[in-house]
């Protein structure tokens, strides 16, 4: 049985408080004054001043974060605060959710799956995970872990994806940093991962559908796969309209793509990655996105230094850890909260009690059904012909694939519903429906 042992609820608390705020915002019509205020807020963000001389770049053409410390001391100081989000106290999801061992059986995620660490730990994390230590991987696994690899891909093209992970990983030493979002010009936002730029299609220049301040985050916080021919990191869509779970699954089905065959059933499976951008901007997008909020608005607040300098914090945190945002942004739609942070927190505690339990109950219940589904399909496979699968087994494989895909889409999206509550529950419902249908077919 997949049972959260209490600690998972703690993991979800921050995001689920935000969930409550989003639910409230969903009831707010995106009036012109709110949209205008959001647009004005974005333009009022502090702008970095151009330096007289750009520091020297390394062999990949990347200026390291440490080299910008003198020119941008406040941004650098807050960037280094991300170091605190390290490995200590992080959950091992395979222990916290034992059913994942069955779900991912035969795939590298069954070897190791820890709670995500901070951005400045990304390079060390990919080096140390059992997924790369116990199984030979290609260099494409380094995507988004260091700007040096991003620069290498942009310089060499798809051939950079095809090397061996262990042959290449030790040549990089800069974690996620300034270059990822600015390249070597801190006054500009530049999306370094060109595969994501291509996947946005015509929406790449549409600030309403895909604002640049969200693209810079979305270039790594997205669902992707490795092209079977080129091994290139690739997104399964073109444009935001195709960024829905249904459209992404159809894309994979049309190309007959799978990440692995399940070890017990041999069903062709898909391992979803972190689809935060798709969850927020896919299809009709969320209410907050339509109002005009970007990823940076909520996760990178404006701070004022002792000398009066206003700057954008580069400590990437939950908005619920930002008291200024709670008091001055959330309350624009939550008038009942006034400007009292304590009142906001009290309101959120109520939301955690109700919503977190509902999400936990749904995910646990579906996971239990999914585990039963796998056992039943395995029994049917073992009892059938050793030759080509029967039509019934092929149908069961499809249902297993669907149940896994929809459940995983929610499980690995790091807001646990906060970014798009309606889509979260709708997607879980589709997962459960697929598992129920398979179990019904098997009696």
**CATH topology value:** Flavocytochrome C3, Chain A, domain 2
Distance between the termini: 20 Å
Label the CATH architecture.
Orthogonal Bundle
Strand order of the largest sheet: 1-2
What is the chains' assembly state?
single chain
Tell me about the largest β-sheet: 2 strands, antiparallel
Give the C-level CATH assignment: Mainly Alpha
Spans of 5+ residues with little confidence (pLDDT < 50)? 3-43, 337-341
- Mean pLDDT score, rounded? 85
* Proportion in β-strands: under 5%
- SSE topology string: HHHHHHHHHHHHEEHEEHHHEEHHHH
Count of discrete domains = 1
CATH superfamily: Flavocytochrome C3, Chain A
Residue share in helix = 40-55%
Enzyme class: oxidoreductase
Pfam families: Cytochrom_C552 (PF02335)
Signal peptide: 1-29
EC number: 1.7.2.2
Question: What does this protein structure show overall?
Answer:
With 443 residues, this protein is mainly alpha-helical. It has helices at residues 7-26, 32-43, 73-80, 93-96, 99-103, 122-128, 130-133, 147-156, 165-168, 178-182, 194-200, 212-218, 245-254, 276-281, 287-291, 295-299, 323-333, 341-383, 391-411, 421-441; strands spanning 225-226, 233-234, 260-261, 268-269, 302-304, 310-312. The chain has a single domain, classed as Flavocytochrome C3, Chain A (Flavocytochrome C3, Chain A, domain 2, Orthogonal Bundle), CATH 1.10.1130. Helices cover 49% and strands 3% of the residues. The strands form three sheets. The chain has a two-stranded antiparallel sheet with strand order 1-2. A two-stranded antiparallel sheet has the order 3-4. Residues 3-43 and 337-341 have low confidence and may be disordered. Its EC number is 1.7.2.2.
